[in-house]
Amino acid sequence: MMRWCLLWALFSLAVWAEIPAIQLQLYTEHMPPYSYLEQDKVDGINVALLRQLCERTQVKCQFELLPWPRAFEQAQQQPMSGVFSTSRNEAREALFQWVGPLASDWGYLFRLRGRAEVNPADLEEAKAFRLAVARGDVYESYFKERGFQYGINMLDFATKSEPVPLFLAKRIDLLVGSRRSVRSWLQKHGADEDSAEAWLKLEDVGDNYLALHPNTPASLVQRLQQELDRMQQEGVVLQLIQHYTQQQ
User: Where is the Solute-binding protein family 3/N-terminal domain (predicted)?
Assistant: First the structure.
């Protein structure tokens, strides 16, 4: 009897070993402190959060950092893939399946501290200044919908943090970001974290999420969401935010 039990156990293990592990290819962009390259490794608050989530759900996840438009496109075209940190809004809702929210913060228009001449009272007045946005970013469409135009009052860059040197040199008037992100960008460029001040609070464009290819199995999406909810309750997100913002 024991021999048959042993044979059955070995057979079960062999069958289980042949079942391919679930794999996800996850794309992100250069957006410190949420995602960036550190010694050729993709790291950051939301990268660390999703690494833990994948480990806890026994999903093999590969992370790759790309320019945002390409990362966003890959996640729509490539099965078993996803993109983060993606603002979830009405325009994007049907394009993906969603897991989140991840770590995020409210968006503002920032001006360089001491530039009293850069003082728009609202977005309409902000059109008189030079605004930097990232190509393909949710804020690109946000400002276009509100009448901002390339070549007049809006300049595009490959990443959200790329215009920081021009912002510090007063060649760009307004920078888009969250308080947490802008502090990180300034530190990376050797500037005091208080060099910029949040001047105009922007309307909510949606929290950060992991956006998964629409054909991702619903059971996997649910599994990831349930585990992320547990991690939220355990305070994991807050711990990662504190860790990555303190080590900068």
Answer: 23-248
107-201 — its CATH code?
3.40.190.10
Q: What is the pLDDT of residue 136?
A: 93
Structure confidence at residue 49 (pLDDT):
98
Beta strands 23-28 and 81-87 are parallel
CATH fold of the domain at 24-104+206-246: D-Maltodextrin-Binding Protein; domain 2 (3.40.190)
Burial 1-17 (b: 16+ CB within 10 A, else e): eeeeeeeeeeeeeeeee
Domains 24-104+206-246 and 107-201 share a fold: yes
- pLDDT tens per residue across span 67-84: 999 999 999 999 999 999
Give the 3-state secondary structure of residue 139.
Answer: helix
Q: Is-contact 65 37, C-beta < 8 A?
A: yes
Helices 218-234 & 45-56 angle (0-180, nearest 10): 120
Report the phi/psi class of residue 151: left, alpha or beta, with left for phi > 0 and alpha for psi in -120 to 50: left
Q: Would you say 66 and 29 are in contact if contact means Cβ atoms under 8 Å apart?
A: yes
How far apart (Å, rounded) are the C-alpha atoms in residues 103 and 81? 20
The answer on pLDDT for 123 being more than 80 is yes
